[in-house]
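Reply to thread "Modeling small-molecule complexes from scratch"

Following up on the discussion above, here's a worked example others can learn from. I took a protein sequence and the SMILES for pyridoxal-5'-phosphate and predicted the complex. Inputs first:
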Amino acid sequence: MTHPIIGWEKETPVPENYYFNAYLNARNGRLHFEDLDLAQLFLGDGPDQGLGRTLPSPLEIIYLPVIRHRIDQMRHIFADVIAEVGYDGRFHYTYASKANAAEEVIRTTLGAGTHHEMSSTVDIDIAQHMIRRGLLTPDRMIICNGFKPAGSDYAANILRLKRDHDQLIPVIEDLSEISPLLESGLSFDVGLRQKSYGHNTTEAEIEAANSRFGLNLEALWKAADYIAAAPNLNLVLYHYMVGSQITNGDEFLSYLKPGIELYARLRQHTPTLRIFDFGGGMPVPMTLNFEFDYYGFVRQLLTTMQDVCGRYNVPVPDIMGEFGRYTTSEHGAHLFKIITAKENQSKYPWYIMDGSIMSSFPDSWALSEHFIVLPLTNLDKPFQRVQLGGITCDSDDVYPPKPSHSPLYLPVDTDNLYIGFFSIGAYQEMLGGVRGSKHCVLPEANELIVDREGENGRYKFQLLAGQSAGDVLRNLGYHI
Ligand SMILES: Cc1ncc(COP(=O)(O)O)c(C=O)c1O
């Protein structure tokens, strides 16, 4: 495999009107996010884009229209393939809120009509808030994943939420999670999660898989029997998730196939079963040489489902995906200024930026994850290979990640040079923490929420203030 392409890989300037991907393009030597001139937000030159002021660097961008595009795109693909192969079941787009639980994100996914997936107790409060605001409507399914043993706050709060919202489906991870539902006396549709993470093709491999998630086969059948015997529980969903950001469609499907067989067997045992939930894993472009045939994958998924269900003589299920990264990766960008270029006989010059790579994008140093990095200015000037350094004192606060072979090129001219990290909207902020105090006591940046009036309409902005030095100090117990 070639290395992940994380930016411009040439010394020559970027051509005018060059598209790096579906939403990042070069115009007049400046990077645009769709039609938004990102550098203008700092420099204030050129026509005002609706913000009416300039902002200091660093700056987080939350570009909401991309979330809606992604949801629409996947819905269209499923609708087309369902019609093409004559699939007798429906598709349920569900947003996995663990990828990004920010209010503007949940407001946008629910506004686009998605179902909602959650994983822990505070998620219940978010859901109740959204129900009160009329955004989480009674027709939406709420899928409760995550550990919820008897006696836990989450188990108790699921019962509370059920009283407000009927279409609630707790997914059983462990046999101990059944009793609170059983004893509540409330009528519940429930799901069962199979222990399935990774590539397990045989039942013996599934049994031996080393994962803390889900039920092994013996527990799965036991749970199905308990539920069948319970007067108030109704098994409707089977959950079989195999991983995250799986970029090879054939591999993704081969991982899922044993789960499809198990679904069909469970359906023979429990006729109320009607949803196959493949969880997360749907990949999204996080670099510039990403390729994934979404149509091909969905076609294979649905036709395999038809074949297997035909063999077991059971009806095909509705298909649910819990899309976390796919929904939110691309809506997030984080912009910085290059404050100095340092030539100290290192392999490549160090460009030092006014923020932290480590605490803004924890997966870059923890998992050597790649993100897209492009300049916002000087795209029409020569480039050189460089290394990026964050402003903390930490030797791991660098990009590309240390084991990476991906070259990073940025403009030689560092005068007013701003850069952006892109496709960072899933997990990074939640892992790095929102508010609180961060590595080397760096305050959190301002956040600019960007939306449009209509598909290509005028930009609308909402600014969320970052942290002051006083905020950081108070968090650490200094009452100065
Ligand atoms: C149960 C469950 N569903 C969905 C997801 C979302 O996965 P992804 O971000 O790959 O879509 C996760 C992620 O860990 C998960 O644990």
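What I'd highlight from this example: The chain has two domains: 24-64+330-475, 87-323. The first helix runs from residue 40 to 43. Questions welcome below.
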